[in-house]
């Protein structure tokens, strides 16, 4: 029986390897903090000679940030992607540059910048609603936790306002962080009325807030 030479085995192995399907590499999602840092970084950009669309592309190239503008949706708001721009922006944040570029491109409405993975979607003002959510039990639990284990360096006993602040910060950090007005977004706000929370947000985000509150209540029941 003829045995294959080593070089023949090597060729066969290489051919087999080449015939295997390649697994697509999914790019790692950047942390929200990293993307927010890019939005708040300061820059200069010369607009003269650029269209609104080309200016957005230049932002992407210069700042290594993925932007997706809803050109068709914003067309009804007056935005023209081929509108030629003039002037120069100096020492502005990337967020401010986006707003100015699209405003100069004819957009007459406030813009929403929403994070979707590594992508920032830019569209018109979101459709929001307001919902009142009960939070009394959670506030009692948070106040008890703060009283039992106060943060280091705190000399004044924690009060209800501290429990409220902790809960609001938790929600705005864990649920669609970029959309809250306190975080630089345009859609969401939270106010407290006694033992109730008044949330103004998109319907989808309000559903996420409700789910988070339910999970916190389950933890409290354990």
- Helical segment count: 8
Shape: elongated
Helical residue percent?
A: 40-55%
Low-confidence stretches: 6-27
Main sheet properties? 3 strands, mixed
Cα end-to-end separation: 71 Å
The strand line-up of the biggest sheet is 2-5-4
Q: What is the string of SSEs from the N terminus onward?
A: HHEHEHEHEEEHHEEH
What is the C-level CATH assignment of the largest domain? Alpha Beta
CATH names the topology of the largest domain as: Ribosomal Protein S8, Chain: A, domain 1
Q: How much of the residues is beta strand, in percent?
A: 15-25%
Overview of the structural elements:
The chain is an alpha+beta fold. It has 2 domains: 32-123, Phage tail protein beta-alpha-beta fold (3-Layer(bab) Sandwich); 129-221, 2-Layer Sandwich (Ribosomal Protein S8, Chain: A, domain 1), CATH 3.30.1370. It has helices spanning 6-19, 32-40, 52-63, 71-75, 94-104, 136-148, 160-174, 203-221, and strands at residues 42-46, 66-69, 88-93, 112-116, 119-123, 129-134, 189-193, 196-201. The chain has a 3-stranded mixed sheet with strand order 2-5-4. A hairpin with a 2-residue loop joins strand 7 (189-193) and strand 8. Helix 3 packs antiparallel against helix 5 and helix 6 (136-148) crosses helix 7 (160-174). The model is unreliable at 6-27 (pLDDT under 50).
Write a brief structural summary.
The protein has 222 residues and is an alpha+beta fold. It is 44% helix and 19% strand.
């Amino acid at each position: 029986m003829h045995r294959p030479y080593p070089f023949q085995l090597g060729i066969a192995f290489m051919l087999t390897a080449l015939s295997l399907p390649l697994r697509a590499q999914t790019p790692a999602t950047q942390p929200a903090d990293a993307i927010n840092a890019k939005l708040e970084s300061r820059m200069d950009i010369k607009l003269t000679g650029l269209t609104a669309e080309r200016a957005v592309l230049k932002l992407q190239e210069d700042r290594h940030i993925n932007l997706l503008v809803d050109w068709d949706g914003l067309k009804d708001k007056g935005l023209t992607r081929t509108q030629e721009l003039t002037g120069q922006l100096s020492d502005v944040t990337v967020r401010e540059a986006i707003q100015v570029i699209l405003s100069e491109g004819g957009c007459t409405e406030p813009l929403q910048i929403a994070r979707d993975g590594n992508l920032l979607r830019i569209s018109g003002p979101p459709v929001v609603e307001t919902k009142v959510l009960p939070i009394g039990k959670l506030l009692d639990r948070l106040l008890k936790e703060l009283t039992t284990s106060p943060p280091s360096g705190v000399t004044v006993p924690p009060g209800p306002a501290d429990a409220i602040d902790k809960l609001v910060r938790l929600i705005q950090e864990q649920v669609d962080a970029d959309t809250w007005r306190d975080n630089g977004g345009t859609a969401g706000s939270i106010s407290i009325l006694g033992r109730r929370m008044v949330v103004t947000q998109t319907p989808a985000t309000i559903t996420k807030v409700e789910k988070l509150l339910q999970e916190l209540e389950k933890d409290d029941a354990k």
